[in-house]
Automatic annotation (TrEMBL):
Fe cation 2 binds at residues 107, 166, 196, 199. It comes from Mycolicibacterium frederiksbergense. This is Acyl-ACP desaturase. Belongs to the fatty acid desaturase type 2 family. Pfam families: FA_desaturase_2. Signal peptide: none annotated.
Length: 322
């Protein structure tokens, strides 16, 4: 096996790559403002200021869109946990610190915009949303926490994880916009999804450079993340229920995770085409390939089960209408 590098060495060796990618990001991204994406004319007071509190009939969103909106917003709300992890793994100096701070500011804008939209449109139970936010942010989140102790680089584990996570979040936001049946929500979530894609590109480029610098070590981290991946919303109130709803209705499911997130990123990194792995790296790559084959089998099983479930639900609706 190739000798692994300490995180301090990796950060130093990749600093110029980070600087180039910070500059690329700043040249590519476009400023936008949350207030431009919210239908303010729909706003009105709640009971504490002489209006009426929320009740379900006020929401124009269906169950699927509400579940997805809540999940996406609570995910964005847990930014303090993500910032702590990024600052600890990437350092707060030089281009690394510049990136962490810029990324945090952009991610914070996502939560502001989604919450403003939900408050003004009364799309969800805002009291329940606030209770869930308090619980979720208080609990915090650590990506693939149980795996970090098995590998020698928090930095590589983190940069590999956020590459997949940012792309997964992009898919979730984009598909949520499509099920809202509201062009304003669709426009907002499309804007956020575009940010997430640019964030993913930064992390993907860093990890790509790390693969060139320390192939075996980086592959270990990538494989561990793929094999133990969990969405950043894991642990939030009602995450399992809302996640099932989202998966059933194509917002984020196992097929999308494999075909739109995992496989494209691994292909971009040429994981199965590289010739610079040692015998250890090649054996680890074989393990990853076997895992992906098993995941593909699980995708088919999931789709078959989902189709049967949706067919039964459709049949029950027809009986009630009849």
């Amino acid at each position: 096996m190739q000798k692994p590098m300490a995180d301090a060495v990796l950060l130093h060796e990749l600093e110029s790559i980070a600087e180039d990618n910070v500059n690329r990001h700043l040249a590519t991204t476009k400023d936008w403002y949350p207030h431009d994406y919210v239908p303010w004319q729909e706003g009105r007071n709640f009971a504490a200021t002489g209006g009426a509190d929320w009740e379900p009939g006020q929401s124009s969103l269906g169950e699927v869109a509400r579940a997805a909106m809540i999940t996406n917003l609570l995910t964005e709300d847990n930014l303090p946990s993500y910032h702590r992890q990024a600052a600890g793994s990437f350092s707060q100096d030089g281009p690394w610190g510049a990136w962490v701070n810029r990324w945090t500011a952009e991610e914070n804008r996502h939560g502001i915009a989604i919450r403003d939209y939900l408050v003004v449109t009364r799309a969800v139970d805002l009291a329940a949303l606030e209770r869930a936010r308090m619980e979720h942010v208080t609990n915090g989140f650590a990506a693939t926490k149980e795996e970090l102790s098995k590998y020698d680089s928090d930095f590589l584990m983190s940069v590999a994880y956020v590459t997949f996570q940012e792309l997964a979040t992009r898919v979730s936001h984009r598909n949520t916009g499509r099920v809202c049946d509201d062009p304003i929500a669709d426009r907002l979530l499309s804007r956020i999804a575009a940010d997430e894609n640019l964030h993913m590109i930064f992390y993907r480029n860093i990890c790509d450079a790390a693969l060139d610098l320390s192939p075996d070590q980086t592959l270990d981290a990538v494989a561990a993340v793929v094999e133990n991946f969990r969405m950043p919303g894991q642990g939030m109130p009602d995450f399992r229920r809302n996640g099932v709803i989202m998966a059933k209705h194509g917002i984020y499911d196992l097929r999308q995770h494999l075909d739109e997130v995992v496989v494209p990123v691994l292909r971009k990194w040429r994981i199965f085409d590289r010739t610079d792995f040692s015998a250890h790296g090649e054996a680890r790559r074989d393990q990853l390939a076997a895992f992906l084959e098993g995941l593909a089998v699980n995708v088919v099983r999931f789709e078959e089960q989902r189709d049967r479930l949706l067919a039964r639900e459709a049949a029950r609706r027809e009986l009630r209408v009849g």
